[in-house]
């Protein structure tokens, strides 16, 4: 009787659908469009054609890294040096897949996994992590496809609009243009705070401290690597949730 009552109070979670992913992608879409618009605007001003700007967003799809690679290429830097710089900035993405796989309890299909893995940006990873932490059983690959696809489409669409208006109205409002790039880190920070739990404070503090030291002493790519490394090392020494419960 008690088990039946518990089941009635806690019904089994229903897997999120592709439509749920589209709905859940709206906060990311709202943040992506203005930042992608700013990138399209910047790329055209640096001498790239609208088609080349859109190609960067379709293939690289890496937010701040696109601003960096277009700036390096326009300054005369070689393609190999530019590519290696961007790879150093984005090496953290190698950890996103294993981090999610560790939490996913359902079986994954190769085709779907490859599709949503391409769209595994910082914000999509944060949204997926928050979803898995709240209710692992309600997560699904269809949901991931919905949120990844809509996020990617919004980024490409925002770039296209910015590239087409490269010499347009925003030239008279440089402050507005500059503020658009702030929305991407602000969006990621909001997802990070949504997934934050008190036992993870050591990892968060270590990652922030490593990133801060890296950016002060070296550069942004070094700061990213230092933050990731410090966070991973701290996570190894941090007690798990079950250990914390046992102690109490």
UniProtKB/TrEMBL annotation:
Chain segments annotated as transmembrane: 26-47, 54-73, 143-166, 178-196, 208-237
Report the membrane topology from the UniProt record. Multi-pass membrane protein
> Which Gene Ontology cellular component terms are annotated?
plasma membrane
**Keyword Cell membrane on entry:** yes
Report the InterPro entries cross-referenced here.
Brnchd-chn_aa_trnsp_permease
Is Cell membrane included in the keywords of this UniProt record? yes
Question: Where can this protein be found?
Answer: Cell membrane
What Pfam families does this protein map onto? AzlC
Task: Classify the source by domain of life.
Answer: Bacteria
Alphabetical keyword list: Cell membrane, Membrane, Transmembrane, Transmembrane helix, Transport
GO process annotations (BP): L-valine transmembrane transport
Q: What is its main location?
A: membrane
Recorded hits in PANTHER family, A to Z, give:
INNER MEMBRANE PROTEIN YGAZ
Family named by the database record: Belongs to the AzlC family.
Q: What is this protein called?
A: Branched-chain amino acid ABC transporter permease
Name its species.
Answer: Serratia proteamaculans
Q: What is the lineage of its organism?
A: Bacteria, Pseudomonadati, Pseudomonadota, Gammaproteobacteria, Enterobacterales
């Amino acid at each position: 009787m008690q088990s039946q009552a518990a089941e009635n109070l806690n019904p089994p979670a229903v897997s999120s659908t592709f439509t749920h992913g589209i709905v859940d992608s709206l906060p990311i879409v709202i943040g992506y469009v203005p930042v992608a618009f700013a990138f399209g605007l910047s790329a055209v001003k640096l001498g790239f054609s609208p088609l080349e700007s859109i190609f960067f967003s379709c293939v690289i799809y890496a937010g701040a890294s696109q601003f960096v690679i277009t700036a390096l290429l326009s300054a005369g830097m070689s393609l190999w040096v530019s590519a290696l710089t961007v790879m150093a900035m984005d090496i953290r993405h190698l950890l996103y897949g294993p981090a999610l796989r560790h939490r996913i309890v359902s079986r994954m299909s190769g085709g779907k996994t490859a599709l949503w893995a391409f769209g595994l940006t910082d914000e999509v990873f944060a949204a997926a992590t928050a979803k898995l932490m709240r209710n692992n059983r309600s997560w699904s690959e269809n949901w991931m496809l919905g949120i990844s696809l809509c996020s990617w489409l919004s980024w490409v669409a925002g770039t296209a609009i910015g590239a087409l208006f490269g010499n347009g109205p925003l030239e008279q409002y440089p402050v507005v243009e500059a503020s658009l790039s702030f929305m991407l880190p602000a969006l990621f920070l909001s997802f990070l705070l949504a997934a934050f739990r008190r036992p993870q404070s050591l990892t968060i503090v270590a990652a922030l401290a490593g990133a801060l030291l890296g950016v002060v002493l070296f550069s942004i790519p070094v700061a990213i690597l230092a933050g990731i490394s410090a966070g991973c090392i701290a996570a190894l020494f941090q007690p798990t949730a079950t250990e914390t419960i046992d102690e109490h």
